[in-house]
Prior knowledge:
By secondary structure, the protein is α+β, with helices and mostly antiparallel strands.
Amino acid sequence: MSLVERIEICLKGLGEAIGIKKSAVYLWSPENMCFVKGICSKWLPLKSQKIISRNIISITSEETIYYKLRKGQSVIIDGKEASSYLPDTKSIFIFPLICKRDFLGIFVMDFEDISIRVDKNEILDLINMCSKHLSISIENVQLYERMNRENERYKQELNIAYNIQHSLLPRDIPTLKGMNMSAKSIPAKIVGGDFYYFKRFRANKHEVGISIGDVAGKGVPAALIMAMALSTIEQCIRYFNEPGIAFVNINSIITSH
C-alpha cells in the first residue's frame, strides 16, 4: 500500500468518526525547507488542492506558527484570519506530524466541520491517535524509499566498478601458432579479485608471458587489490624485460602495500 493510500484511509476513517469534511496532510522536505506534497483524500470536497496548498504554506510560513508546529504544538486559527487563508472556513486546525523528533509534516482540517455531538476530549484523543498513526506511516515509507534510493545508488556504483575493472583486463589475446587461447573473468560477486595478463617478453612471436592472479576475498576490497596488482605487473613487465626480474620486483611492491 502506498503512502498516499494509507493517508487517505486514515483521513477517511477520522472524517467518518468525527464528521470532518475537509482535511489534508502536507509533507515537509527538510532539504528544501518547505512543504513539497499535499495529500487530500479523494472523497473530500476540496475546491482546489493547489489553492489549499498555497494558502497552507502561507499560514505555516509565519514565524510564530512555524515554531509552534516544529515544537510539536497544534495551532487553531479562528474567525476572519481563518477565512482569509481558506475561503468559507471559520476555524482551521493544524496538527504537527512528528516521529522520533523529526518534523514530517502537518495534518490540517476544517475544525468547524467537526460534529457537535462528539465530545471535545474525544476529538482530541482521536486526532492525536490519527496523527501518531500518520507520523509512523510517513516515517516508515520515507525510510523504505531512502533505503531503495541507497540500494539503487549502490547498485549503480557497483556496475560502474564492474565496467572499470573489466576495462583493466587485456582485450587483445596473443595468438600462437598451434594454440588457441581465450580468457574471461567471472567474479563471485559483481566485482572480484581474479585477473589475467598477457605480455610478449621478447620479439620472438612464439613466446608469450601469462599472468593469472586470484586475490584472497571477494567484492570491492579484492577488486581494489586486483587493480593495484594488475597495474604493478603491467608497469614492471614494461620496465624489466626478463620474467624473473620483473616478478621479483612485482612481489616486492605488492607485499609492501
